Amino acid sequence: MEQILDMARWAPSGDNTQPWRFELKGGLEVVIHGHDTRDHCVYDLKGHASQIALGALLENIGIAATRHGLRAEIAVRIDQPETHPTFNVRCVPDSAIKPDPLYPYIPVRATQRRPMSTRPLANREKSALESAAGSSYSVYWLEGLSNRLKVAKLLYLNAGLRLTLPEAYQVHSSVIEWNARFSEDRIPDLAVGLDPLTTRITRWAFSDWTRLRFLNTYLGGTVLPRIELDVMPSLSCAAHFLIVGTTPPRTVDDYVAAGRAVQRVWLTAMSLGLWQQPEVTPLIFSGYVREEVQFTKDSQSYRLAERVAANLGNVVPAETVPSAVWMGRIGAGPAPTARSVRLPLERLIVS
User: Fold this and answer.
1) 199-248 pLDDT per residue, tens
2) Can you list the domains of the chain with their CATH numbers?
């Protein structure tokens, strides 16, 4: 069980929060204690981002169990609050189980925030990714230069919101580990995607909200980061894509299932030699606007979120947006030289 969990902990989570802890019950049973970050993260006010991450973790458990000839049986605990999704996991021997071919890619899967190749995806690659999403999801592709330009415009606008939103400041200032190539519980600055000069400016600005607001207001402080983190990567990839459910997700189970699909798509991309970068915040802000979630006290930020939502509806069919559970960019290229790693297993096990 510890070998399975040691692989499972490599699941992706927003800003490397790792919203899970493991309670070993003896034998091949474990309780997964999940939690969301709605109390301090503006991107997770309804817990959906953390629920998707928990789904990715459970998918990793299922894949890793096959390596040992086991089938993972997973049951959600209905007696727990929505803020703390909890799962009973029992692994049972199954002679029909074969090792999942995605197993080797679990620990090497990573986010690539640097430019990727613009080589179009081959039909076989797209078919493999669509199959990996499963029968309950489809993949909506945004290919070609014109679509990459549309997404670049969307993400430039979206980044203007992310980088000036007061409620996002505490998130951004706490999730980066400076002067680091790897980080166990945050994002190392060398993996962010900024050049050295912009990194130094950003570190200086993030040390104080007043300083950051002055830089953004009077010195165009968001322009360089938006170009480096959003515009250039948007143009430097094979395609952008959305994973879309057959119906809009509504329950914790829906978002956990979405996370399992997202992880299979991501690992399948790795098996094809393709990298991915999540681009989910436009979906998050669009959802807030659609559901009238008051995510900020700043009226200008809310109006900007409304513009993001409208722009997203121009990039993809508006009727698709409520059912979309994931958005990202994808492409071939070299492996990232810096990345988030994970807390060691012993720090994730609770009694």
Assistant:
1) 888 888 888 888 888 777 766 668 888 999 999 999 999 999 999 999 99
2) 2-108 (3.40.109.10), 123-340 (3.40.109)
